[in-house]
Design a protein that fits this description.
Two copies of one chain form a homodimer. The first copy, chain A, is of the alpha+beta class. Among the domains of chain A are: 331 residues, Thrombin, subunit H (Beta Barrel); 57 residues, no CATH class. Chain A has 25 helices and 21 strands. In chain A, the strands form three sheets. In chain A, strands 1, 2, 3, 4, 5, 6, 7, 8, 9, 10 and 11 form an eleven-stranded antiparallel sheet that branches. In chain A, strands 12, 13, 14, 17, 18, 19, 20 and 21 form an eight-stranded mixed sheet that branches. A two-stranded antiparallel ribbon of chain A has the order 15-16. The interface between A and B is large, with 48 and 47 residues.
Chain lengths: 690, 690
Amino acid sequence: MTAKVVVVFACLFCGVTGGIRSVYADEGMWTFDNFPAKKVAQKYRFEPSQAWLDHVRTASLRIAGGCSASFISPRGLVMTNYHCVVDCVKAISTAGRNLVNTGFTADSAADEWKCPDFELDQLTAIRDVTEEVQKSLAGKTGEAANNALQAETAKLQQSCGSDPSIRCDLVSLYHGGSYDLYRYKRYSDVRLVFSPEFDAAFFGGDPDNFNFPRFDFDLGLLRAYENNQPAASSDYFRWSREGSKEGQLVFVSGNPGGTSRELTVSQLEFERDKELPALLPEIGEYRGMLEEFIATGPEQAREANENVFFIGNFFKVESGRQQALMDPQFFKLKVDEEKRLRDAVGSRSMASEAKAWDDLAQVQVERTKLYLRQDAMDGNFFFHSGLLGRAIDLVRIPTERAKPNGERLPEYTDQSLVEKKEELLASIPLFKDLGELSLRFAFTNLQRKLGADDPFVRKMLRNESPEQLAHRLVSGTHIDDSKERERLFNGGLAAIETSDDPMIRFAVLIDPDLRLVRKEYEAKIDAPTRSAAERIAKLRFAVYGTSIDPDATFTARLNYGAVKGFNDARGQWVPPYTTFAGLFERANGAPPFALPPRWLSAKSSLSLSTPMNFSTTNDIIGGNSGSPVIDQDARIVGLIFDGNIYSLGGDYGYDGTSNRAVAVDSRALLEGLRAIYHLERVVEEIESGR
Amino acid sequence: MTAKVVVVFACLFCGVTGGIRSVYADEGMWTFDNFPAKKVAQKYRFEPSQAWLDHVRTASLRIAGGCSASFISPRGLVMTNYHCVVDCVKAISTAGRNLVNTGFTADSAADEWKCPDFELDQLTAIRDVTEEVQKSLAGKTGEAANNALQAETAKLQQSCGSDPSIRCDLVSLYHGGSYDLYRYKRYSDVRLVFSPEFDAAFFGGDPDNFNFPRFDFDLGLLRAYENNQPAASSDYFRWSREGSKEGQLVFVSGNPGGTSRELTVSQLEFERDKELPALLPEIGEYRGMLEEFIATGPEQAREANENVFFIGNFFKVESGRQQALMDPQFFKLKVDEEKRLRDAVGSRSMASEAKAWDDLAQVQVERTKLYLRQDAMDGNFFFHSGLLGRAIDLVRIPTERAKPNGERLPEYTDQSLVEKKEELLASIPLFKDLGELSLRFAFTNLQRKLGADDPFVRKMLRNESPEQLAHRLVSGTHIDDSKERERLFNGGLAAIETSDDPMIRFAVLIDPDLRLVRKEYEAKIDAPTRSAAERIAKLRFAVYGTSIDPDATFTARLNYGAVKGFNDARGQWVPPYTTFAGLFERANGAPPFALPPRWLSAKSSLSLSTPMNFSTTNDIIGGNSGSPVIDQDARIVGLIFDGNIYSLGGDYGYDGTSNRAVAVDSRALLEGLRAIYHLERVVEEIESGR
């Protein structure tokens, strides 16, 4: 699927970008304040009005962890994917009550179960702040530029006040070509209404993932609450009874996590030749560990089943990126695009800006020297998540809080701390055996990458092996208990200094080194990259204006397309719709092609010709999971949950001949909720729009 | 290390090669009948005589599984690496008697323990058969050419008679430029005399592997027996008391497994862009599974500890190859080399042969279409090893035996069956849990690569998941018992047809498909590759003569070099010798830097200044493990066990400025055997040469 984890992981590796691509049909992840309504009208004879756009924007939602969603009733009912709520399902499961396997239905409002650490964001306003930000950066380089941006960001975010139900994010578009302040209404009381069984939501598992035809019921229903009551959501999407038709115009509103279409050739070469060859085997290894872990018993399977699925998904995504870059024809397109822009610029006497490409090439040389260490320490996903990630947060917070807001690391500003606190204190299960596995992997990898004689490796391991260190830290820590995290959070510096928790002591030991590596990388790589990308963005505006959409940034975007099939690798036409009948044909009883009992017994009461999944030409990417597919009346006709295999190269460029988004059909959603899950109260709420 | 597994795994992926490289100092893996003695004399003022070469050849040995060795006494005493005998150590271990951990010392001749399925080969004669082989191939292409070569190979091997102590191999050098028949004396009663503890042999583990400075006691001692008596080995290497000195000329005699220095640019591009990007994440995943498997308990660790080490080694080797190919400067060297030869050829009016490069480029297009399936089915290491590999052999043998010798698959000719039978009936442990893990991995990967809808995948899995199929086959099979394998082997077709063993039935089910895929690949890829490579070899002879050594083929080779340090990545000079003192400094007690108790307690009785490991400029590669390092008096000064990190690119080309072989010093070997292991009877045998 177009998954959450894509964002979670991918931001470890995403760089600042800059460049130009060619324009294809239906391409574009457009911001709501620059939507090409006239272009849509030319091709599809429907021109979205400003009111239509505003309605769609406010009926759409972002899930802070990395997904999209939407309101589908005036009483705060929210539609998204199962794979976007699985963390909640897991958090409210226990060893004896495995809701991941069995699914969850709230038969009454009272049964709607609070999701720990879950946040929905509704975009309410966009303000252009380009001038202020660029002024604050003018003439500064390296660390000074980073400090200035950090201070300006904190100031702008702070300008929204301290109400925890308001969130403001500084959004950099076109890689610094423009800056906007996005203001969100923030819902942090979110409850689970419905989730299907893992086997229905992920039917076909890894083999079918990013493939089509497809047969998934990847639906999760939530409800936003305010003051312990269902939130009043006046802007919401109505449901389409008829669904969609082949060739029909459809829109997808969501939060694509990140694209790299504007990377320069030197940046693409870095990804192709350095980053991805190192990353993919590492994903493979961790995937193998998890696969073996879940094979050891049912409890281990409960703990990590969907981690295995997410890591497999991540692997496919990154492989798809690699394959795109290693395709010489595709790469030549990128080289030609860059040449066209540079040629166009050459004739505009902006030669001083045009040095940006050479600057970026030079940055890649420095990056090659620094990235392995940065990736192993500051960029290490396992250092900054799970038990150790929480320990590092707990250790850093008192120190950061003592600084003025504008001088803190961005994740600890007053506004960021609202979210950080919820995340830290949430009562979610942190499985120790899985945590030990992850740290074992992280420490071993760090030792491999930097070498056994590296001073940081020696400091970290002292006289222990990676395995011994991971075991000692995890077995001795108490921060898997949210009460202990709360005690440390509230206790400030004194609590940290007097704690003899081995995970805390370890975080204290390595924190200065992690900070140093981060600071060096930000100064030597991020700052000059941003500076060059800004100059390229200016050149691009000079040549193309804003007729090209900005690279995705996990912020609200709207795109358009049509319901359409495609030719597969053998040249065979794949039609755009599948049906329930096809699902039952494919279900052979063996995982991942085994249907849950509830589906098997409901077969006779289902209308088997109901369209189940469909493919469209919409230009989406990871982060769009859970996005509504709507028709020109802004009615729900589907629910995005994946792309086909050709969509994976979409990170670098959209190819309308084969790139397809994949969605659950609105007709299947209602039929399933009614005939399989008997959720009449919800069906009635959706259908009535009341 | 330069390991066994390199060969075992690597031949799944090795292609036929062809091309030309530039010549560097000390480069070359020379056959004994074309050794550049005069060139050595020019540089090092010592010219090996024919008698010297003959002596070195017959004192050297090959271990059939993928290593090198040598006689070091007239009573059949054999020196090789620990990592070359670890399969034997494991085979004679039990859950209660873990010799991998504790080491093994045969205090008397009666304690020398037979290694199941172990073969030593001593090269006794080389006969040029180029004319006969090329005549048999003349005018044939595709399947016809393959059949002709198969028949000619069987005929030539058969010409050595049926004595199981004689083995003849047809060796193709310069990729078909010439063919030799190598005649070996074959020792199949091989007994274990000594092995150290895993922690001493693999000190530094994966982090130190392919690095230098290094501190390993990677020694294994065997003894060849004939008629239940120690074999009389009149040609053997005497020991050097003084060892070596920096700058001294040294020779390495051994069996480098394979190099790819003569690949054309189109073949290199295939490896760089298709094969290695797919292979490395796969190795990573299997590695992760094994790492997690050994973490589950001590018995699992006993079963798979060294598998983890070998897979880590394999990963480093393949990564090193990838990095070499992805280095644009290095790749340009290969492009330039090819251009030079093609230019030279152009002026010799051999234009029809010169089409070979274009033919090979065309083969890569077809290969891209076929290799995934070939790799997943016929080339699948896990299908052709372990429990399923043995089942496939047992199923194929009766069918193959019924055919004339020259029409059988090469691994089932009369001569090959001698070895195959020993392998099949050997009483070695085949752990079911580990076997299930491997098949789970293999089936899952096959499903991923070919897709869930592939007809072979559907036939194989029917209504099972990869996990279910692996579990059913492994839990139900009895062929882990050597008695059952013997019954099936002796029972012929009837025993197979009436067996209800699920592994046998599965092998019967898939055998026709595996054969078809193999045949197609051999006809469409291997045959035209061989044809083109032969033509390129002819052109090369025309331009360069035989002044360039042929690519390695796991046959006897001799090379020369000097004891020498090198500059590391930071430009720091690494001196060529380490000492016992350095070992004790590095030993911090945490695996893989933990020394066995025996070493710790012997510290005071060791001469700490004894040189332990050293680096030389000799041009070696996987398969050379266990090779003796000798001085110009043909005395042992060391034992090859590894290369430095820069040696990994050596697959594609030798760079004398940094590529180093790594060996255990002869002085450390004797000091260790005496002061730590108290093996006086063996020390006395080595020192006296009697």
